[in-house]
Write a structure and sequence with these properties.
Layout: E1 2-5, E2 12-13, H1 16-23, E3 27-30, H2 35-67, H3 75-81, H4 85-110, E4 113-117, E5 120-125, E6 128-133, E7 137-143, E8 146-151, E9 156-161, H5 167-176, E10 192-193, H6 203-214, H7 219-231, E11 234-239, E12 242-247, E13 270-273
Antiparallel strand pairs: 1-2, 1-13, 3-4, 4-5, 5-6, 7-8, 8-9, 10-12, 11-12
């Protein structure tokens, strides 16, 4: 039997399922649906087999079309047109299966995995993983495909590609565990479009922002510069190809941030097992 135990009141039995449901909420795990990489991998493999069936016929059609022009037929096309169907299906099918395995592995590896608890959350994505205390966050919100977490100084603690996770499930998990969820960036009105020479930025800041503009197609260099700019108190984002910048708070919690760590609703009594 399970007993409901509370100060100053008699014990009474409660359903086991009620306790299990409550304690199952202590940590919420969010990850990509296991079917997604399987479907991508199998689909890619089947596409390879299909191309293997169609390759000789397509190559022969291409040879016929090229023969009507003054251009010579490329040796690879000529070889593919003479390839027996069994060899074509086998070779291209194997290539399709190998590609499908790679696609499935990449999809699983790149997908974000979150574990949300009442006092902290952890994340893992590709070769990155991290632990963030709930009390250190002033805001969490969705920005396009990314999940953005701001610290008490309003600087980003993490910006995670959450496209593989259900937006509703992420929002529900964070809210139910007491995280400061926002429907959008709470500092939306503080961003300025960066224009070289704009007086709101110092010469050194302009130097870094120009370097970031030059390295915008180099993801590793761009991320390194973003981290350097964040360390200097500048928060960046991009809108329609335009870099927008705001200054982080110097101290104290951000707007609307909780002033103390508060837990979500808990039962007024505890669950414990007891013999009949």
């Amino acid at each position: 039997m399970l007993l409901l135990v509370g100060p100053g009141r008699a014990d009474r039995s409660i359903p086991l399922i009620e306790c299990l449901l409550y304690y199952s909420r202590v940590t919420t795990e969010l990850k990509q649906n296991v079917a997604v990489p399987i479907v991508l991998g199998v689909g890619t493999a089947l596409l390879g087999v299909g191309v293997g069936f169609a390759l000789p016929a397509l190559a022969r059609l291409l040879v016929t079309l090229i023969d009507r022009t003054p251009f010579p037929v490329h040796g690879v096309i000529d070889l593919a047109s003479d390839l027996p169907l069994g060899w074509s299906v086998g070779l291209v099918g194997v290539l399709g299966v190998a590609t499908g395995l790679y696609v499935a592995h990449a999809a699983a590896r790149e997908a974000l995995r979150l574990e949300v608890s009442r006092d902290h959350l952890t994340y893992r994505q590709e070769d990155r993983n991290g632990w963030i205390e709930r009390r250190d966050l002033s805001a969490v919100f969705r920005e396009g495909r990314h999940l953005v977490m701001l610290g008490q100084d309003t600087r980003p603690r993490a910006r995670l590609d959450a496209d593989a996770l259900s937006a509703g499930a992420v929002q529900e998990a964070l809210r139910s565990h007491g995280y400061p969820w926002r429907d959008g960036d709470p500092h939306e009105g503080q961003y300025l479009d960066w224009i070289d020479g704009r007086p709101e930025f110092t010469d050194q800041e302009h130097v870094l922002l120009r370097r970031r503009h030059r390295e915008r197609k180099n993801s590793a260099a761009r991320e390194a510069l973003d981290e350097e700019l964040t360390a200097r108190g500048l928060v960046l984002r991009e809108r329609a190809g335009t870099v927008q910048v705001r200054r982080a708070a110097t101290a104290g919690p951000g707007p609307g941030a909780p002033t103390a760590l508060t837990d979500g609703p808990e039962p007024e009594t505890g669950c414990r097992g007891a013999d009949d």
